[in-house]
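Need the bound structure for nickel (II) ion, inputs here:
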Amino acid sequence: MKFTYYGHACFAVDVAGKKLLFDPFITPNPLARDVDVKEIPADFILVSHGHGDHVADVVAIAKRTGATVIAPFEVGDWFEKKGVNNVQAMNHGGAAATAFGRVKLTAAIHSSSMPDGSYGGNPAGFVIESSDGNFYYSGDTALTLDMKLIAEQTRLSFAVLPIGDFFTMGIHDALRAADLLGVTRIVGVHYDTFPPIKLDREAARRTAQSAGKELFLPAIGTSIDV
Ligand code: NI
Ligand code: MN
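Answer from helper R.:
Posting the output first, comments after.
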């Protein structure tokens, strides 16, 4: 699957001919200033929770592309009130058939409030199952034993996990998460954007390698095959 990184926890994956964009936060991110938000394609926008560093560009991209926004219930509701037409507001444990395959919302240990302070429900992650393969994006979360349940149901090709520490898992817990998930390939996100989550990339790569895992850290604006 083609994976494109847009900085922080924003990325796109091409799945079964559809463009899935996750947690768009580009305009406020100085590290992503070379990314043209007006050029980003999306058929679906998946939003893990209500925090500003995950929702900043959702409304603009959804209105421009007509993409369907898939999000936890209260987050989806908030986007509807902002004038987004196609919203699929789901909740944890629920799955749905879509044009790209199956999407399921998973639990995440974090918090969720909207940028205007309104209630954002509980934060989520996503399991995507498709004819191209399956993957998991945890969203912002702590390490949780619940991840083991995902591996029991779905054979994952890779996982997209936060590795920046401080607000989410750091690299050590992300590697333990990979063990629970039964994956050896991890794409790291949610690092470098803010001072507390600065990452020593080489150290992180070495740590992953010694744990028998492959850690992908694509440069912002570039694509890799995962
Ligand atoms: Ni967050
Ligand atoms: Mn975040």
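Comments: Residues 2-225 form a domain with the Metallo-beta-lactamase; Chain A fold (CATH 3.60.15.10). Residues 49, 51, 110, 140 surround nickel (II) ion (ligand 1) (CB under 6 Å).
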